[in-house]
Description:
The protein is of the alpha+beta class.
Amino acid sequence: METVERVIYRVVPGEPSGWDVMQENSGQVFGNHRSRTEAILQGVDLARSHSYSLLVVHGRDGKAEKQYNYGRKPRFEQV
């Protein structure tokens, strides 16, 4: 049985300022934005580009505030 892992993106406070959009596990930063809204919009676009993903939005304190799920975990039938 094949497993499909969910792709997780996070909007987090940037260093030294702004907001970063990054992919969990790889740590790759896809963008740094002046406003949190701009970062969330990029995160939504990235998350929607996958069949099974999650976008987690953090506050300035680093704590997760919101989560947005996209798609469904695919079910595989055994043959």
